[in-house]
Fold this sequence. Notes:
Elements: E1 3-7, E2 21-26, E3 41-47, H1 57-61, E4 76-80, E5 84-92, E6 100-107, E7 127-129, E8 133-139, E9 146-152, E10 155-162, E11 167-173, E12 191-197, E13 203-206, E14 209-212, E15 217-222, E16 228-233, E17 239-243, E18 248-260, E19 272-286, H2 292-295, H3 298-302, E20 307-311, E21 316-322, E22 343-348, E23 352-354
Parallel strand pairs: 1-6, 7-15
Antiparallel strand pairs: 2-3, 2-5, 4-11, 5-6, 8-11, 9-10, 9-12, 12-15, 13-14, 16-17, 16-20, 18-19, 19-22, 19-23, 20-21, 21-22
Amino acid sequence: MASYSYRTWETINLPTVNTDTYFIILDHAASGDPSYVTNGVIYSGLIMKNYGIKNLNEILSQHIYPQEISFSASGYTQPDTGMTKTFYVYYTTDDWANWTYDDITITYDWSYTSGDKTELSDPILNLVDYRQVFMYSAKASNPSGSTVIVKINNSQIDTYTMTGTTVYNYVRRLDTVNYPGEFTYAYSYDFFVNLAVSALQDQLVYGNIYALEINGKTYYITNTCYRYCLYYLNNLGGWDSLLFRGRELQSDKLSRLSYKSNYVAQSTEFFKKDYLTKINEGWTLNTSFLSDLESGKMIQAMASNRLYLHDFDTDTIIPVNITNSSCEHKTYKNQGRKMATYEITVEASQPKFRI
């Protein structure tokens, strides 16, 4: 038996075999003769002598299910058990009375090669709108757990304890929070969210702007005039958000199903009649000017396979898919000494229909 660990960005290959070998890949450990397993079989076949199993990514990725985010009205934590997945590969060279197996573990861990990282949220911008859903992801630094304290303007609103190594997603609709003072449409009331793992630091006050020195991250909450926010699963397996401060455009693609009549009696009758229109909603969104550090994180949003678009005007949140086919790595220098902007195109995951 051998154990293999891969991160989501790595190519999944298994070593060569010394003789012709039959194999079965299961999504769970089998007890007894694996040839009798009736469920959980992902793939099976024959490996020829001196060959291995190559490029298992497409096969295994279909059976990794990161938990979808639910947008509750109040703050809560949602354990995500789908961020680590183990598969089992069973082998035999003659019959299934004699077999061995390997296990393959796949984790969301793109950016770190060693060490335990508890902070899994790494947003492109730390600016958030009070009308949006705030999301923060973390995992316990040790099996005994860690405490996460959520504060806005030094006022504690939520506390939760993580246990084990499961990823915890904190979700809070910011418009359910009671903010101190008047919340105007200007930028004079920026607030800070404190998500401190296991420790709190001292509060620092700068005039009428409140800040908190924290062990975790600081987010700036304000009331913007922006319309769209994108929620996405980042490279670490944590949830982040991105406000779009540039030009936006909605454009829908239409496709129609029709039939033709065999006979038309009058000129006002249809010979070709459309009976179903399929509508694929699409949006073109533009960021504001980004620094080199912020630009370097854009690949996290554009390569994500889990995205939601929040329309503040209608307060609707819908699952979307990115349609961009490339992501340019922009810097202040390679953009002619200008700060970078990005255009993202998305389409609704679920089409609409007109009958």
